[in-house]
Amino acid sequence: MPVLFLVQQRLPDGGLAYAFRASSLVYGDWWPGVLTAMLLHGGWGHVVANAVSALAFGPPVARLFPGFRGAALFILFYTLCGVVALIGYSLFHLGSDDLIVGASGAVFGLLGAALRLLGRKDGSLRPLSDGRVLAGAVVIMLINAATGLIGFAPGVEGARIAWEAHAAGFLFGLVAIGPVAHFFGRRPT
Questions:
Q1: pLDDT tens for residues 145-179?
Q2: Is residue 24 part of a domain?
Q3: What is the pTM of this model?
Q4: How many domains does the chain divide into?
Q5: Structural domain containing residue 82
């Protein structure tokens, strides 16, 4: 992410031509933005927060999927979390021309998936009905909503936080890791 941000800073418009707009879903203006927005960030604080979070929550999920096929599946899962996050955000802001950038929705998807692995040494998933999963999900969603509604997050002063994207990515990752792990041959216990 830091390397991509260095490249982004050298683009003529700072990469904003590749940002996502919720209005794209309504008007079909520029659909690739749903993918390229995940490669862009609003500043170094944004980059560091996403990179550190991805490093924290990505490895437990990636370990579920060894080998080349697993790496491809991990990247696909990460990307789908980000796409679902942007679509989730857009459902709350249909027609908005505000620019959306960042990998936070995809990272929150990794967080949701990692929550299902919490405390499991054998790589098995906790069921969605597990009390620890439910309690963790509630706490994460409350913190996310409070942070988004209050508008405070270190490193993003003056920028709006797309808490709806975080929520959508998190919920998708929390639920989708089950079928994805099953597809790869992992069985939840």
A1: 888 777 655 555 556 788 999 999 999 999 999 99
A2: no
A3: 0.90
A4: 1
A5: 43-91+103-184
